[in-house]
Structure formats: structure tokens, C-alpha cells
Amino acid sequence: MESKGITCGRIVLASRDHFFVWTEQGEVEATLGGRLRHVKSCLPCVGDWIVLREGNVIVDVLPRRTRISRKEPGRSVREQILAANLDVLFIVSGLDQDYNPRRLERYLVLAKESGTRPVILLNKADLQEDSEVFVRRTKEQARGVPVLAVSALEKRGLGEICRQVGTGETAALVGSSGVGKSSIVNALLNEDRQPIAEVREWDGRGRHRTTQRELFLIPGNWFLIDMPGLRELEPWAAPEQVDDAFADIAELAAGCRFRDCTHRAEPGCAVRNAAGLDQSRLAGYRKLKRELAFLERQSDIRLTRESRKRWKALEKEARRHPKRT
Ligand code: GDP
Ligand code: ZN
Questions:
Q1: In Å, how far are 14, 47, 66, 82, 310 from 43, measured between CA atoms?
Q2: Nearest atom in ligand 1 to 175's CA
Q3: On the chain, which terminus has fewer CB atoms closer than 10 Å, C or N?
């Protein structure tokens, strides 16, 4: 699409005030138009479709079909959009010391809220004698979510990864630093494009890198965004999404005597004493519920406060310019 110097494009890399955009003319560097600079929620992120005017200035961000968000790190209660217009979210975990069901659950909640299809990748399958045990265990917990054991190192399972994404669709890789996200990107591209961190022997985690979120075109014509380790993962989601991510617990909870049972001390609780329910999973569920309920309350408070401020400003304006009738 082009008319009078206006072009459409997609953000492949975004930093504070510097953007790389794919256009029909190829990749260009772009800057932000004045109006967009002042609206935080309008700041383009990787995956966004945008409108460029002459001189490669971004003047508009098209509505986002889906988005991956977390709570802005720190004390603020704001949404931070990490990537936009995704179809599939690959949640990567390493089958070394990184395998952590509690963390997977957090990512699942993130995925549920985003409207993307989650797929769990258990990478470094070459390090596990019996990776199928982990696949089975993970499948039991993340019901209905595909779970694949792969190895970027041995290029195992790459075809299966590709089968999860349709032509023209966009996927992203999330997971802690060191689980092998960059290695998966490189294996899929069949070249070394993303720098790979050396793993520290003692804790199995990659060295901290500052690589940015970047969009790649994968052979087979789909897109993949590498999202470097999110140190703080507090999903930005509605509390209901937790039940969606913990289908087994939600199902049990249907049998509790009280509808708002917190599964702590209530009589007639069907969850607390359920046979075979991993207590640390229950603790993870409760913690996420609490966090998101808090977030919901706080952001309600913030919204109310902001709208009150807006009304005050309008009132003041109205007093200054009494209505002429
Ligand atoms: P990222 O931080 O998630 O992007 O992880 P990297 O791709 O940088 O990988 C971290 C470390 O794990 C590197 O030393 C990789 O060589 C190693 N690694 C990645 N994939 C595999 C794998 O499938 N098997 C094994 N054994 N090591 C891997
Ligand atoms: Zn209960």
C-alpha cells in the first residue's frame, strides 16, 4: 500500500525511540512521530503494524489483534506490552536444572490472557535420558496444550515446532534466560543470527544478555519473535485466566461446598485434600490468584483516580467557559 509517501510496515525491532521496520521496500530505520511520543500505550512494540510517512516517521499504530503483556516491573501498576499480533506463544523450558512447573504456569496465564495458542517446548531433550516422562507430566498439568520435547543443539523436533504455526502466522519464544531460545531461532533459521550465551556451570542459567526482542522470518514463511529472558514475570491478566491455566484445580473446585472457596481452611473443600494434587502446584495457583486479584484492584483504583482527575480538569474548563445558550 502506498499513496503520497504513506507506507505500511511491521516493527521488527523496537527500542525507546529507534525502530526497525519491514516495508515493501525492505527494512528501514524509523523514528516516532510527535503525537505518538506522548501516549505510552501507543508506543509501537515488536510485531506491530504501523503507518509510516515520508522520511520514515511512524505516524500511527494499527489496532493490535493480540498482545503479550506483563505488569511493568517495579512498583507501578501498569501494563507493559511486550509484543503484538501473535498467533502462537512458545513457552520454552530447559530439561536441565531449569525445569520449573511453577514458572510454566505463569507463562500459561500470560498466554491465556493474550489470546494466542500456547505450545510448551521442553528444550535440551538431549540432556535427559527420558524426556517423555517430563512431556507426560507437563501434559497432565497443562491440559490441552501441546508439549514437545526438542533439542536445538541436535536439531531435534524442529519440524514439529514448525507444524504448530501456519503460513503467515507469527509466534514468539518466551522463557528464562539460558533455556535455549536463541539457539532455537538459529536452528530454525539454519544460521547463527542470535548470539548464544554461555551457560554458567553451577546454576545452568545463561549469562545476562541485553539482546532485544526481534522478529525473524523463518523458512516456510512464518514469523518468530525472540523475547530475551523476562526477569520479572508478573502476568497482566484477569484472575479468571488462572482457572483456565489450572484446569485440573478449577475442575476440583467445582466440588467445593462454597463457591468462593479459597481452598485453605473452608469445610467441604474438594481441592485441599484431593488425592494426587501436588501441594506446591496448589500454592502456585493460590499465589497467582492473589497477585492478579491485587492487580485488578489496584488498576481499578488507578483508573478511577485517573478518570476523576480528567473530570476535575473538565469541570474546571467548564467553569472557565460557562455554556452559552
Ligand atoms: P536463551 O538465553 O534462552 O536465548 O538461551 P541460548 O540459546 O543463549 O542458550 C543457552 C545455553 O544453552 C547455550 O550454552 C546453548 O548452547 C545451550 N543450549 C541451547 N539449546 C540446547 C540444547 O538443545 N541442548 C543442550 N545441551 N544445550 C543447549
Ligand atoms: Zn475449596
A1: 9, 12, 15, 11, 22
A2: 3
A3: C
pLDDT in tens, 245-276: 888 888 899 999 998 888 888 999 999 888 88
Cα–chain-centroid distance for residue 278? Answer: 26
Give the whole-angstrom CA distance, residue 58 versus residue 8: 9
The answer to whether residue 300 scores a pLDDT higher than 60 is: yes
pLDDT digits (tens, 9 = 90+) for 177-198: 889 999 999 999 987 666 655 4
Question: Other CB atoms closer than 10 Å to residue 198's CB: what's the count?
Answer: 8
CA of 309 relative to ligand 1 center, distance in Å: 49
d(CA 96, CA 85): 31
Which residues, other chains included, contact 290 with Cβ-Cβ below 8 Å and sequence gap of 6+?
none
Q: List ligand 1's pocket residues with C-beta within 6 A.
A: 123-124, 126-127, 151-153, 177-183, 196-199, 206, 229
Nearby residues for ligand 2 (ion, Cβ within 5 Å): 256, 261, 263, 269, 271
204: alpha, beta or left, given left = phi > 0 and alpha = psi -120 to 50?
A: left
